[in-house]
Design goal:
Blueprint: E1 30-31, H1 52-61, E2 65-67, E3 70-71, E4 83-88, E5 97-102, E6 109-110, E7 123-127, E8 133-136, E9 141-150, E10 156-161, E11 170-171, E12 177-178, E13 193-201, E14 206-209, E15 213-221, H2 254-258
Parallel strand pairs: 1-6
Antiparallel strand pairs: 2-3, 2-9, 4-9, 4-15, 5-7, 5-9, 8-14, 9-13, 10-12, 10-15, 11-13
Length: 279
């Protein structure tokens, strides 16, 4: 935020002065230090957002959403002020595992430590109810996956925008920016990378189902194609993600998940390329 502004997350054209960041951790107790990168500024020129017609045209030329190896058909995508993405609750690798729920009273998490923490010390595996449904508990923090793989062409960026209040009392966009090139692998067998959605239900329990439209991508045109896109030699942490907690956690072990699973949910995991879950 800035001085003399009427809202958060906006810096007016021509502003000169200090910048402030309001930092609140509602999930884990965090340790930070001076000069640690905690947010980013995106500079916009003109009107970079593209409308639904342009998104549809782009998807036909360079597909944005994939299901398996194939692009989602143009007649199957949902456009309404942005491109809707669905939630996946079928389970991963033949199990009923669909996500994680943050534990309360976890140890301090030092944001300077990468690939360091045990996921099970901070996250509880979440399984669907056998009918590909899940009830979100009020004010609990979840990680869930998109049903589609997302591929952002190099000349564009995308933002996961706020879920409309008319769709339910939940929020799905705590970390929702997609750099140019996210999931962009046009010559591989399974293009696209799933979006890991950070979700919090608010005042009441909220039931969700597999394939339910769950978040919306707003696409913006870059002023020019970047020299290097996300995932190309940048050490990009989430280019091949599946159900990843953040880069601060070590890969998940199958035995750790099986220990928490319902009896019929601990079958052998056969996970997609790039998943952090290992045996």
């Amino acid at each position: 935020m800035t001085n003399y502004n009427l809202q958060f997350d906006e810096i007016e054209d021509g502003y000169e002065g200090p910048l402030y960041a309001e930092v609140i951790s509602r999930t884990f107790t965090l340790k930070v230090k001076t000069e640690m990168k905690m947010n980013q500024i995106r500079f916009m020129q003109g009107r970079p957002a593209i409308d639904d017609f342009e998104i549809g045209t782009l998807h036909e030329k360079e597909p944005i959403l994939f299901e398996g190896e194939a692009p989602v058909g143009i007649g199957e995508i949902v456009l309404r002020g942005g491109l809707f993405v669905r939630v996946s609750l079928k389970g991963i690798g033949g199990t009923d595992l669909v996500g994680y729920k943050a534990k309360q009273n976890s140890p301090i998490l030092d944001l300077a430590r990468l690939n360091y923490y045990d996921v099970m010390d901070y996250w509880e595996p979440v399984f669907h109810d056998g009918k590909a449904r899940l009830i979100l508990e009020p004010e609990k923090f979840y990680l869930l996956c998109s049903k589609e793989g997302v591929s952002i062409p190099p000349g564009f960026a995308a933002e996961m925008v706020a879920y409309e209040p008319a769709s339910g009392e939940l929020r799905t966009h705590y970390a929702g920016f997609f750099d140019p090139g996210f999931g962009y692998r046009p010559r591989v067998q399974s293009p696209g990378t799933v979006a890991v959605m950070e979700v919090r239900a608010h005042d009441a329990p909220f039931i969700i189902e597999d394939g339910q439209p769950f978040c919306k991508l707003k696409l913006e045109r870059m002023t020019q194609i970047p020299d290097v896109i996300y995932g190309e030699g940048l050490g990009s942490s989430y280019q091949f993600q599946h159900l990843n907690p953040s880069k601060h956690f070590r890969p998940v072990k199958l035995r750790d998940i099986a220990r928490h699973a319902p009896i019929d949910s601990s079958r052998e995991l056969e996970l997609p390329f790039g998943s952090p879950i290992t045996k």
